[in-house]
Design a protein that fits this description.
Elements (H helix, E strand, L loop, with lengths): L1 H17 L40 H15 L8 H13 L3 H4 L1 H18 L4 E10 L3 E9 L5 E8 L6 E8 L8
Antiparallel strand pairs: 1-2, 2-3, 3-4
Length: 181
């Protein structure tokens, strides 16, 4: 009986290991780097429990996100030094936010973006995929960025403690299965 239980446990363990599951977030709220030779799964989990609403966010948010993606595209006429325009994109976008004050997170975002763009190719463009509110003061936005090999999912979470929206979290990943029913 003990052997049967042990065999069942080992079989379940193998099945669970075979499934593609993103690593758990660490205490900084980000997902650890994937093992060598694997693709990045994402630095923010994505779940979708409703029909996507691709309506544009408020103008000041849309402008900041569009500028962020435009900077991530880089300047095609400039010599290719990806690290510079990735850092510039994050420094500008996160300026004045609590995320921007956490330099280790910014550095992590830059390295993960560089890694993802190295795997899937340079950013071509981005579009809003989903826009929904949690209450009246939290806004969750999901964007798709287009690359030569596959899209990446981006999640931006904004909070409105007073009259202005403030970015409180962001993340991205390559698991497009999260979008499928």
């Amino acid at each position: 009986m003990k052997r049967l239980f042990l065999l069942a446990f080992l079989a379940l363990d193998l099945v669970l290991r075979a499934q593609s599951v993103a690593p758990a977030a660490d205490d900084t709220g980000t997902t650890p780097a994937p093992a060598s030779g694997t693709t990045p799964r994402g630095i923010m989990p994505l779940t979708l429990n409703h029909k996507p609403n691709p309506s544009e966010p408020p103008a000041e948010i849309a402008q900041a996100i569009n500028s962020f993606f435009k900077t991530l595209q880089g300047d095609p006429s400039a010599p290719p030094n990806a690290q510079d325009f990735y850092e510039k994109a994050y420094d500008t976008f996160l300026s004045g936010t609590m995320l921007g004050e956490q330099k280790e997170k910014t550095s992590y975002f830059v390295s993960k973006t560089q890694e993802a763009f190295g795997i899937y190719g340079p950013l071509k463009d981005a579009e809003i995929f989903d826009n929904y509110s949690v209450g009246s003061n939290v806004l969750v936005l999901t964007y798709l960025s287009r690359h030569p090999l596959q899209p990446l999912l981006w999640r931006f979470i904004y909070y409105r403690p007073d009259k202005t929206w403030k970015l409180i979290n962001l993340g991205f990943g390559d698991n497009i299965y999260d979008l499928l029913d």
